[in-house]
């Protein structure tokens, strides 16, 4: 399997309700990189998305290009023809070129099958509080259904005598 490939993706801010990008961008996948990279130029293209400063080790991609991150930013991305988006921490490099490289972290939770068009649904184990809330909700729904059933039976029972008197 290739360690890198080019794909069309949409990248947008983590807190955005919809993609406000001006379209898809060419991104390169590179499984030799330990993390994903985005350039300052691409962040400007996304509407001036801000990032937090941080120092990260310089890495070399599969093409031999070195990248020295100066910051990081939380973004979401999805393939151009896909609806499932992925949350990703991108490390920012000081370049005005529109650059996006999806590192190995992009593929940890998005195992590809069937030509890369199918993804598993990411499920998390529920916390004890979430399980309790769900069981309480199920109980309330069951009680409400039982009450509605009793009311319906009562209404039907009241209608039956009226129907027999009319004959």
Can you put this structure into words, describing what you see?
With 167 residues, the protein is of the alpha+beta class. β5 (59-60) and β6 form a beta hairpin. It has a 6-stranded mixed β-barrel with strand order 1-2-9-3-8-7. It is elongated. Residues 110-121 have low confidence and may be disordered. It has helices spanning 40-45, 105-108, 128-165, and strands at residues 4-13, 25-30, 36-39, 52-53, 59-60, 66-67, 69-79, 86-93, 100-102.
Secondary structure layout plus pairing:
Elements: E1 4-13, E2 25-30, E3 36-39, H1 40-45, E4 52-53, E5 59-60, E6 66-67, E7 69-79, E8 86-93, E9 100-102, H2 105-108, H3 128-165
Parallel strand pairs: 2-9, 3-8
Antiparallel strand pairs: 1-2, 1-7, 3-9, 4-7, 5-6, 7-8
Query: Into which percent range does the helicity of residues fall?
Result: 25-40%
Structural class designation? alpha+beta
- Largest sheet geometry: 6 strands, mixed, barrel
The quaternary state of the protein chains shown equals single chain
Q: Using only CA atoms, what is the Rg?
A: 26 Å
**How much strand?**
25-35%
Shape: elongated
Query: How many beta-strand segments?
Result: 9
Order of helices and strands: EEEHEEEEEEHH
The CA-CA distance between the termini, in Å, is: 80 Å
Q: Which stretches of 5+ consecutive residues score pLDDT under 50?
A: 110-121
Tally of contiguous helical segments: 3
**Neighbour order of strands in the largest sheet:** 1-2-9-3-8-7
Mean pLDDT: 79
Task: Give a quick summary of the entry.
The chain contains three helices and nine strands. The protein is an alpha+beta fold and 167 residues long. The chain is elongated.
